[in-house]
Structures
1.
Amino acid sequence: MSFLNKEQQAQIGDAITAAELNTSGEVVLYLCKKCKGDIYEHAQEVFNKKELYKTEQRNGVLIVLSYQDHKLAVLGDEGINNVVEDGFWDDVIKHMVDQFKKDAYADALAEGIHMIGEKLKVHFPYQSDDVNELSNEILHED
């Protein structure tokens, strides 16, 4: 993946792992070069195609970044959407976009993942029988 180097990919993978240590929620990052049309429609397609709704508590969160045309979406499943305050996803996006403007893509993604993990921890604390329901690998379109 040429958008992020190996160190940046590891940084983001570590952020996902850390975010999920304290919650039963799941965070998935999906990267694509270009997104024709609406980024949220694309995110919903990815969410469904990758079956990210298949978490026991419906608390998966998908971050989609279309890096060549600068589009970003954060999509939470119904379990997490029902409990986060209005505007939370927009706040996460705004924070990441502010960092993107400084060309700090890996830092921005890691910080956004951290913000999401903190919110998941509040509403979906870690359970002793928790299993990692979704891969921590960065997903991407070729």
Note: The chain has a mean pLDDT of 89.
2.
Amino acid sequence: MDALVMCGGRGTRLDTEVEKPLFRVDDVPMVDRVVGALEDSAVERIIAATSPKTPDTRAHLDVHCIETPGEGYVADLDAALADGRLSRPVLTVAADLPLLDGEIVDRVLAEHSDGSLTVLVPAALKRSLGVSDHTTFESEAREVAPTGVNVVGSVTDDDWLTRDRRVAVNVNTLADARVAEQWL
């Protein structure tokens, strides 16, 4: 399966001058950590979705990049899939997951059976870790949060709920970055 690293957003909540994918957590750009995790997994090919908002990220990366409009996750994913260089299913990974490693990526791939897969964590886990939980919703009478890791297929949506902090810690704020550094 191919992997698409989503790194086209501005990252306004992070409140830093550097592009969000290049923000350093424990002195390593987050996107480098994500690409390294994918390289250490069973993923066959890594492609990055960049945008006009992330030109330095595009120049920095040593993987193939697809230029997207930078209008949000869904618009950028649609543009990347329309490019023709990716086929479904494709693993999508946000560039702001500095705790990601090859083992958890392989677990996600093993959980995927057919169609699409959304990886979720309990919102309470994010709160207990001390990281932001700006996007939560109810699923099976439980408050959950998306992780930024998904498999995008052609049919049916499945969810996988995990309590693994490697996918629970998205860096959206400076406080989130401090939490991530504690776990590295």
Note: The chain has a mean pLDDT of 93.
